[in-house]
Amino acid sequence: MNTHPYLRAFLAGIFVPTFALPLMLAGFVVVRLWLQAPFPIERGLVFPMALVPAVWGLWNMIWMGSHQRIHQSVGLHGAVLPLLLLPAGTLLASCLGILTLGSQGVTWFQVCQVPYILIAPCFLAALVGYYLIWKYIVGFLNGVLGIA
């Protein structure tokens, strides 16, 4: 099956965020409305929910196109994605007034302060999580769709 390999790569890439983001949205709605969280979560969700699945799909298309030349594992390729998403997301959130960078940490929605010492381990956990998700889930879907 060699028809439309990039479309199949895109579909395999968007599966995980398309499945996970509505579940995360449901959790955020519960936190915002039921637990009466004092910050407007929805302001920070709309853009990522529209952009992240497309970025994952395009990233999988890039892996498929470069795999024959580079021979990089899909897990390692996926683990690079947070290195691109974090600076882009930070810049966008700062420009939109959702995130404020301070000397001791970042402030979300002018309410929730997170020290930098907590951001580093969370980012490392994200790298590991992305590696595992890309290796096992996206790699499996690539195999099922015949592009791996």
What's the short story on this structure?
This protein is mainly alpha-helical. It is 72% helix and 7% strand. It has a 3-stranded antiparallel β-sheet.
* DSSP summary, beta strand count: 3
Give the integer mean of the pLDDT values: 87
- Can you tell me the number of structural domains? 1
How far is it from the N-terminal to the C-terminal residue, by CA? Answer: 12 Å
Proportion in β-strands? 5-15%
The unreliable regions are none
How does the helix and strand content classify structurally? mainly alpha
Portion of residues within helices: over 70%
> Largest beta sheet, briefly?
3 strands, antiparallel
Number of helices: 4
Shape: elongated
Instruction: Report the C-alpha radius of gyration, rounded.
Output: 17 Å
- SSE order: HHHEEEH
Strand order of the largest sheet: 1-2-3
Question: If you had to describe this structure to a student in words, what would you say it looks like?
Answer:
This protein has one domain. The protein has 4 helices and 3 strands. The protein has helices spanning 5-34, 46-70, 74-95, 116-144; strands at residues 99-101, 105-108, 112-115. Strands 1-2-3 form a 3-stranded antiparallel sheet. Helix 1 packs antiparallel against helix 2 and helix 1 crosses helix 4 (116-144). The chain is elongated and about 50 Å long. The model has no long low-confidence stretch (mean pLDDT 87).
